[in-house]
Amino acid sequence: MIIRLDMQSDVPIYTQLMNQIIEGIASKQLAPGEYLPSVRSLASDIGVNLHTVNKAYTLLKQEGFIQIHRQKGVVVNPDGMPGITPDYQHKQEAQLRPVIAEAICRGMDKAELLRIVESFYDDITQEPKENA
Amino acid sequence: MIIRLDMQSDVPIYTQLMNQIIEGIASKQLAPGEYLPSVRSLASDIGVNLHTVNKAYTLLKQEGFIQIHRQKGVVVNPDGMPGITPDYQHKQEAQLRPVIAEAICRGMDKAELLRIVESFYDDITQEPKENA
DNA sequence: ATATCTGTTATACAACAAATATAACAGTTG
DNA sequence: CAACTGTTATATTTGTTGTATAACAGATAT
Which domain of life is it from (chains A, B) (predicted)? Predict the structure, then answer.
């Protein structure tokens, strides 16, 4: 999977990494059971420090997306993804409400917003588009 | 309008302030032309520093949600809200994609996600529920 | 067994962001 | 003139982000 980082972004690198790995899983470019690069090799590939990758991996492990087998490597959770927990629902609401509120302010009607969400949903689930 | 801050949150206070003001406008609890408290009085009310409120106001001004009249006060933009600019669309995509990708990972199907977005949309547009 | 690969931990450092604390300035309004 | 606006400046504290090294401990391949 190709990782694209924007070093100019105000989004932390470890967050960009987490987001791209999660989208990779959502788009089935990364399948459960599939191994991810080691912290050192990924860090080297994308030109960041080992600890930055390790932070992303550790947080993804805490949320249940990946498993880390000591001395063996990092693998997309073969037991499946975490489900819709109450904690997750609260986090999702905290993320969605501000986005929806701003859309409303700017005059976006409900149908248009739903159309946009749907198109992103389709776009993610219809990857892989690895080759361009 | 009632402002609720979570001092334990990892979301910066000035961001929480911006979000709540934007949701206040979206829900029509704050109407265009309506005056907001001065930086000093709001800061005093919610128990934060003057500069924290000023940062939120300044950013809201930059995005076009409010106007700041020197020596007169802060007012919800009476010329209307900013529209759907390309910059905004990019920001919105950057905010939405990670949320949608995680929802997909966790097994939320498209209909359920759309239902959630719709319910938040309705919830925001059907405030004010000031009295509980 | 020895070298090499894992993740893990620890420490130190630089740069930056967030928030506070004071203070002062410059216009507006009562 | 006093009191209120937003604005600007400076300083300090605290926490986050990211880098840099280094070492540890277990697994694996030669």
Answer: Bacteria
